[in-house]
Amino acid sequence: MSYTAKVLEQTIKRNPNEPEFHQAMSEILPTLQPFIDEHPVYEKERILERLVEPERLTVFRVPWVDDKGDIQVNKGYRVQFNSAIGPYKGGLRFHPSVNTGIIKFLGFEQIFKNSLTGLAIGGGKGGADFDPKGKSDREVMSFCQSFICELQRYVGADRDVPAGDIGVGAREIGYMYGQYKRLTGQYEGVLTGKGLTYGGSLVRKEATGYGLVYMVENMLASKNTTFEGKKVVISGSGNVAIYAAEKAAQFGAKIIALSDSGGYIHAPEGVDLELVKQIKEVERGRISEYVKRNDGATYHSDSSVWSLPCDIALPCATQNEILKEHAELLIKNGCKIVAEGSNMSASIDATELFIKSGVYFAPGKAANAGGVAVSALEMAQNSSRIVWSFEEVDCRLRTIMHDIYTNSCNAAQRYGMKGNLVAGANIAGFEKVAEAMLYQGAV
Ligand code: NDP
To answer: Could you tell me where the beta strands, DSSP code E, fall in 95-159?
Structure first.
């Protein structure tokens, strides 16, 4: 049995009931074998056994008081997975589905993603099984303050710097930042995704979506084409989806669909993004609202957004939102490019099918790395007390995405897997972390 297969088998056995973490390891570890064959020292030094074990996993109680005066209790998490190349960095997810396996899958992916950005950030992730949907601002504040009361023991500007993810946007980051400052007396860059008046970076809000589109820009360029006139289907209608739609539309694409967990809107002539922003960002409403105010679209809750014919599919909602049957539909309907805005959007068999069928596929750890990259640029601005212009940050983001694309392509080609961005991104991300771990000894 190969080294990577052995580590995978052992780790699954030692961590039962964590299917998403198993899936992330099953997608990553086998692709590293050719690299490890060439560098046997990594097996000798047990780098993979160390990599799959988080440095630390903290689970904590989050009690808070709702608007009726009743006490509610949620579970909070932070995994500090790997600090070989920098302080832990990774978002916080507030969603009822959050559990240890999901936090570990996200944290494990984050190690590779952060390495790919070329910036000095290690891998971490966190969150809670709290659902901000339908809660008042006061309830969300009560929860966030309680959450950070505990989390503040483990984070810090040079230690661990959380950001947003599903259910955590500018509102939640603001409440947590204010409480952190009050508890510690420190005005430091402990969280990213902050508001622009208190240390946030321009382009952070747009970064994941814009970065995703910059990644696809490179994929299209390699096929001598552009976004101009392409039909794009996007799932989700949160932060990543909205700004992917915005940049793709600026590049001349037509965004024909967006969704949320209730269903999707189909707008054959293109989505009105200002209306989507009003409904989602201002009113915190459902995407179904859209068709009540715009008659150029229809709403569907009984079929999948992936059943719509398109040139490019950008999943931007959640993990495993593209299963094999969805991949089959997309391929049958002529989709040529799939790039993951959400983490692990596609199941392993869907990913394999895309690659086998010649659909150009970009995995989340490469394609959605723009968010954490600009978060690291926010950290740099906070440390130096300097604010960069929108153009400067955007230009750095575009360069970073280009470099991630090129490094992933080159790594895939070096190991005989030309065009396979999944293997390429895994190897390119692993190289730097593995070498740093090697030089730091048995820690
Ligand atoms: P938001 O909370 O802003 O939006 C999430 C969107 O996805 C909503 O439209 C939501 O619909 C939908 N969604 C969430 N869970 C499900 C589900 N189980 N089934 C169907 N739809 C669902 O999150 P983000 O846009 O920030 O994050 C989206 C994805 O991008 C996540 O996978 C995240 O990990 C990834 N990502 C985010 C980054 C960031 O900077 N924000 C960085 C890198 C990756 P509803 O409102 O109905 O729940």
So the answer is: 122-128
Which residue has the least CA distance to atom 4 on ligand 1? 238
Give 67: exposed, middle or buried? Use CB within 10 Å, 0-12, 13-18, 19+: exposed
Tell me the whole-structure pTM to 2 decimals: 0.98
Interior CA angle at 260 toward 343 and 346, to 5°?
Answer: 30
Q: What's the pLDDT at 10?
A: 98
The pLDDT value recorded for residue 443 is 87
List of the chain residues with pLDDT < 50: none
Mutate to test the pocket of ligand 1, among 140, 191, 240 (most ligand atoms within 8 A of CB): 240
pLDDT given for residue 128 in this prediction: 99
Backbone angles phi, psi at 161, to 5 degrees: -125, 95
Ligand 1 atom, smallest distance to 258 CA: 9
What pLDDT sits at residue 198? 97
Determine how many CB atoms are found less than 10 A away from the CB of residue 17. 9
Residue 169, sorted as left (phi over 0), alpha (psi -120 to 50) or beta, turns out to be beta
Residue 325 is predicted with a pLDDT of 98
Tokens (6 digits) for 187? 């005005």
- % the chain with pLDDT above 90: 100
Query: Which is the closest atom of ligand 1 to the Cα of 262?
Result: 47
125 catalytic residue (yes or no): yes
How far lies 389's CA from each of 52, 117, 196, 316, 385, in Å? 39, 20, 12, 27, 13
d(CA 391, CA 368): 20
What DSSP designation does 30 have?
A: G
Q: Are 367 and 374 in contact (CB under 8 A)?
A: no
| Beta-carbon count within 10 A of 426 CB | 27
How far is residue 25 from each of residues 43, 125, 304, 438, measured CA to CA in Å? 17, 16, 27, 20
Choosing from 105, 108, 261 the residue with most ligand 1 atoms within 8 A of its CB, the one to mutate for a pocket test is: 261
Q: How many Å apart are CA 105 and CA 57, to the nearest integer?
A: 12
Indicate the DSSP class of residue 199: T
Task: Please tell me which residue in 89, 104, 113, 125 is annotated as part of the active site.
Answer: 125
How far apart (Å, rounded) are the C-alpha atoms in residues 162 and 58?
14
Distance CA(387)–CA(381), nearest Å, equals 6
Q: Does any ligand 1 atom lie closer than 6 A to the CB of residue 316?
A: yes
* Ligand 1 atom with the shortest distance to the CA of 167: 2
Q: What tokens were used for 173?
A: 């980051």
